[in-house]
Amino acid sequence: MTAIVVLDPLVPILALWGAAALCAVAVALALWRRLPGWWLRGLAGLALLAALANPSLQSEDRDPLADIIVLVVDESASQRISDRPDQIADAIANVRAEVARLTNTELRIVPIGDSAIEGDSGTLLMTGLSEALAEEPQGRIAGVILLTDGRLHDVIRAPALPAPLHTLLTGQPDDWDRRLVVANAPAFAILGEPVTLTLRVEDQGAAPADTAFVPLTIAIDGDDPLPFEIPVGRDVELPINLPHGGMNVLQFEIPTAEGELTDRNNSAVIQINGVRDRLRVLLVSGEPHPGERTWRNLLKSDASVDLVHFTILRPPAKQDGVPVNELSLIAFPTRELFLEKIDEFDLIIFDRYSRRGILPNEYLDNIRQYVENGGAVLVSSGPEYGSAESIYRSPLGAVLPGAPTARVFEEGYTPQITDIGNRHPVTEGLAAFSPPADDGDGPGWGRWFRLVDVIAAPNATTVMSGLDDRPLLTLERIGLGRVALIASDQSWLWDRGYEGGGPQLELLRRLAHWMMQEPELEEESLWADPTGQTMRIIRRTLETETDDVTVTHPDGTETVLTLEEISPGRFETLWEAPEIGLYRLTDGTLDAVIALGPAAPREFEQTIATGDLLEPLVNSTRGGILRVSDGEIDLREVRAGRPAAGRGWFGITPREAYQTADISIAPLLPAWAFLLLASLLIIGAWVREGRQ
Fold it and tell me: In terms of C-beta density within 10 A (0-12 exposed, 13-18 middle, 19 or more buried), how is residue 448 classed?
């Protein structure tokens, strides 16, 4: 219970001040006239003024409030390495016991975990502290303790602190860590040209000084890693040639050294999109036909295509006695193209080509070797493919996916996608590029009117069929290369829009990308598309079912996911990753890697515990920084403005906050008492002055 005197004037404050002025003038006049009772007149005036001011006694019934100590616990990823989880548990127990020993004191524990991390923002310790302080009355905060490794990333957001700030550091004084850094990595690179990456291995903390080189492995798209040795503490420039177009995933890894804190920063994954500077295509045309110009226009319409067109203009039935080597105005460099520089082409297209002695078997055999070594050949065949002069009856026939039967059908049919074609990336969803047929049976694209009867090779895949389900488009892998056979020369009807046309351009684009081994057109593939921390895991296969996918987390734990078929040959699932970092995916056959954020998040760029970042903030409140490893701490009460830390102890400032439960107000004296007192003083003044 506390009591104070308060004034509740009976008249406006200006009237009270006016009355006080009149009293002062009256007293001054009495003093000037040397009246002996002037002081009694003054006391009488004060009594009247007091009566007007109405002094009251205010009594408050106060309930004391407990002081609050805020303990902010850093539970981010870097606090889960080594023995730090045990240190955190011990420190919390120590602080709980110390707060329980203090009188009228409460503890607020504020965890700051990975849920507070947005993207790769790191540890937002000050943001969490600001939010915690906003929820508590500032007049009750007696102290703030940060339980952290000191690696925070928002120190500039530190709030105004009403009490001492202290830091309990986890970690050990002799901690050390090794980190792999990819300092320079482009997002795009041209195929066939080396791209230079800058790597560096950094040692942090009390690292051993006897390590000059460490092993480094580099794996591309999950293939077998290549070993290297790189120095520690120096930038290393490493030239890399991308193996294919599209997204190339490069994984770098160094082994975990004995005694280092974590291996989370011993690997890095970068993604480089491989682009072709120019797509070099060799188009070999046989006898003239309506589709020849279509092939040329399609290839020339793409500015990224460098086309070399080798064409034969003399019909096979024409016999004019002109030697073959005199048919052109200039000598065509056939030897240079088909022997010396054939490996420079990305794709070779034979459009209705037949053997006439123009290209000897030596050249065609060289093209066969070109395919086996990774090249791509597309054959668009006409009636000549089933004749005795067929290109199949040359050394090139050993790698072609279809053997002719010598039958050629000349009647209309609508090309159809086969069952396996619905799952193959070359023809998957191709029907969506045209409206459905009028009868609802199959796609609504135009008819073709010629089909060369072929027998598909045992290992070939027929993705489109023609008349009576005979092979129309057949694909096959040969050695390191790929070949495709279109058993008709009338795909140009689609380009001309006959009967509504068809998706010739999209079909040829997919064919070219598949033959050049672009990853997005692989029949068997496993990959993940990330959106934030949600990844869409996709498995493409020619089979009708697929195995579960095992996801290995950055910390080594595993999650098994079941994929559902969303379209023929395509299985997917959505999965929310628990944290950013490097994830490995496998279904037992295919492997993939994906990095959500960087492979080594910002949390693991610096892992050695330090108080350097917090020291200026702690010093501004006269707080202290102690290590958990040094033993338990004591909490002591100190006055505001005094040093609040010492060896083995932290100080808190008692706030003596309270809550008013009840207020009562009573007049100090009744009004009649003031009037009586004033009257007696005035009478006293008259009596004193009357005696003179």
Answer: buried
Distances (CA, A) of 205 to 2, 79, 172: 58, 16, 10
Write the CB contacts of 539 (distance below 8 Å, at least 6 apart in sequence): 525, 526, 546, 549, 563, 570, 571, 572, 587, 590
User: Which residues neighbour 419 within 8 Å (Cβ) at sequence distance 6 or greater?
Assistant: none
Strand partners, 390: 354
pLDDT per position as a tens digit, 399-418: 999 999 989 999 999 999 99
What's the token pair of residue 420? Answer: 């396996």
pLDDT beyond 90 at 143: yes
Q: Report the b/e string of 387-426 with b at 16+ CB within 10 A.
A: bebbbbebbbeebbbbbbeeebbeeebbbbbbebbbbbbb
Nearest to 317 by CA among 379, 387, 410, 364: 387
Q: Is 370 helix (H, G, I), strand (E, B) or coil?
A: helix
pTM of the model: 0.66
- The mean pLDDT of the chain is 84
Residue from 122, 118, 160, 162 nearest 138 by CA: 162
Secondary structure E strands in 276-383? 279-285, 305-311, 347-351, 376-380
Long-range contacts: 523-532, Cβ < 8 Å, 24+? 523/424, 523/425, 523/461, 524/589, 524/590, 525/590, 526/585, 526/586, 526/587, 526/590, 526/591, 526/592, 527/592, 527/594, 528/583, 528/585, 528/592, 528/594, 530/594, 530/596, 532/119
What pLDDT shows up at residue 117? 41
**pLDDT at 116 exceeding the cut of 50:** no
Lookup result for tokens 């159809």: 416
* Contacts of 305 by beta carbon, 8 Å cutoff, 6+ apart: 278, 279, 281, 299
> Encoding tokens for residue 288?
């003239």
Taking the C-alpha atoms of residue 667 and residue 484, their distance in angstroms, rounded to an integer, is 108
Average pLDDT, stretch 256-280? 84
For 150-193, write each residue's pLDDT tens digit.
999 888 999 999 899 999 999 999 999 999 988 888 888 888 78
Which residues 6+ apart lie within 8 Å of 189 measured at CB? 195, 240, 242, 248, 272, 273, 274, 275
How far apart CA 556 and CA 221 sit, in angstroms, is: 20
User: 485 near 473, Cβ under 8 Å?
Assistant: yes
CB half-sphere exposure, 111, CA atoms < 13 A? 11
The mean per-residue pLDDT over the stretch 471-486 comes to: 94
